[in-house]
């Protein structure tokens, strides 16, 4: 994809320079929505005037799902000054539905400005505005330690990004009154958490929850403090003044320590704490779903047969059953993604639906989980999925009634009870 003419949006927060692309879309890749001192709550910030290049993502270790997704291509730089977002829009005029993407990665890795999560195909197919958010991760976003951090800073970042959307998205051709938050994995659990907090709930009209782990994995503060004490000891000094490299090294030690206690657990040591997922009236329009072999992704590369099997069988209790229960409890649309590549891949694993919705052919080129599937085949199903997602953002109805299955069948959709 090549860039053509520069283009300037003029939101209330200040002018932002982006670029039009050869696909006819306008992209603003590194719009600053906030700033924060280390381990402090975020606050609004004047945006950088130049948003042509992707904004930096939070400092992080490599993804534990790289064997499934493949290595990230053209990854943005890493920086603690990472509170930025990307906007892709068909035009600066109009009042289109807005979809705000919260990426997954176990609260440890990823970034909204990574090429995997480019929202161009969604924006073009559905005539919508797509916003992809970077937020703080790992210890920088979710450490709990007395006198250092109370936790949930990454969640506070996301809430601040939604405030930015409310105040500024009209200048990018979006309707601030029609915002759909959609997230996957950690981003999906974050979506449920934001819907449970009155201040952020008021900023969301609709939500799509993709492969959220059971909300019961949210840590209580006592356990989070135990992890925080180990992390601070591993830093070997003041975490407020330690270098980023020291923090990441201590985080790696904490991950290994935590995994050694239960090798079959997929729960990350850092994440949301002390929050009960409880949605209240008026309920948002909701769509909730999962892939049929979620946990097979976390078993890739595990050499112990017993541990590998113990991880793989957690799909039902950790993802599928909670998704069905939440959909029933809140009267949500539900889906089950069971598409698999004809050759290669690992089945309908965690993250497999992402190439059908977001990113570019180049960003997903050679992804192991797609096997030998051609991009044309990805697009055949992806085109339909993107229309369901964007129609839900527009009207609250994805098209299918009640539950539906997304798979390899010729009609691509089967209604489920």
TrEMBL record:
One of its GO terms (molecular function) is hydrolase activity. It holds the Pfam family COesterase. The keyword Hydrolase applies. Residues 1-22, 394-417 are annotated as: Disordered. It comes from the Bacteria. SUPFAM superfamilies: alpha/beta-Hydrolases (SSF53474). Its EC number is 3.1.1.-. Gene3D superfamilies: alpha/beta hydrolase (3.40.50.1820). Residues 408-417 have a biased composition (Polar residues). PROSITE patterns: CARBOXYLESTERASE_B_1. Residues 14-237 form the Carboxylesterase type B domain. This is Carboxylic ester hydrolase. It comes from Amycolatopsis dendrobii.
């Amino acid at each position: 994809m090549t860039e053509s003419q520069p283009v300037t949006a003029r939101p209330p927060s200040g002018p932002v320079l982006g670029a039009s692309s050869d696909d006819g879309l306008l992209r603003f890749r590194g719009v600053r929505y906030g700033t924060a001192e280390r381990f402090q709550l975020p606050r609004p910030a004047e945006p950088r005037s130049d948003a042509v290049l992707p904004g930096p993502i939070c400092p992080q270790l490599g993804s534990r799902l790289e064997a499934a997704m493949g290595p990230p291509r053209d990854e943005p730089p890493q920086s603690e000054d990472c509170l930025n977002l990307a906007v892709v829009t068909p035009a600066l005029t109009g009042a289109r539905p807005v979809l705000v993407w919260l990426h997954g990665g176990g609260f440890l890795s990823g970034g909204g400005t990574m090429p995997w999560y480019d929202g161009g195909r969604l924006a073009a197919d559905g005539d919508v505005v797509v916003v992809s958010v970077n937020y703080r991760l790992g210890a920088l976003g979710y450490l709990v330690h007395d006198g250092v951090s109370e936790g949930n800073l990454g969640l506070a970042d996301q809430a601040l990004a939604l405030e930015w959307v409310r105040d500024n998205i009209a200048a990018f051709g979006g309707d601030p009154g029609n915002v759909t938050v959609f997230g996957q994995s950690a981003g999906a659990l974050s979506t449920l958490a934001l819907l449970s907090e009155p201040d952020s709930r008021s900023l969301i009209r609709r939500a799509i929850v993709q492969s959220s782990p059971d909300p019961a994995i949210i840590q209580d503060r006592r356990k989070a403090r135990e992890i925080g004490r180990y992390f601070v000891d591993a830093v070997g000094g003041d975490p407020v003044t330690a270098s980023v490299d020291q923090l990441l090294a201590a985080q790696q030690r904490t991950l290994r320590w935590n995994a050694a206690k239960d090798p079959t657990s997929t729960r990350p040591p850092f994440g949301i704490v002390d929050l009960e997922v409880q949605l209240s009236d008026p309920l948002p329009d909701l769509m909730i779903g999962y892939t049929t072999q979620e946990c097979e992704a976390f078993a890739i590369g595990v050499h112990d047969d017993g541990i590998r099997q113990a991880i793989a069988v957690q799909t039902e209790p950790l993802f599928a059953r909670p998704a069905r229960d939440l959909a029933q409890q809140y009267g949500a649309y539900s889906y089950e993604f069971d598409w698999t590549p004809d050759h290669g891949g690992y089945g309908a694993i965690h993250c497999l639906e992402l190439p059908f919705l977001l990113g570019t052919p180049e960003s997903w080129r050679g992804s192991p989980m797609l096997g030998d599937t051609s991009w044309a085949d990805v697009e055949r199903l992806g085109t339909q999925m993107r229309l369901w997602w964007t129609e839900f953002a527009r009207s609250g109805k994805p098209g299918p009634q009640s539950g539906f299955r997304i798979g390899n069948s010729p009609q691509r959709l089967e209604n489920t009870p």
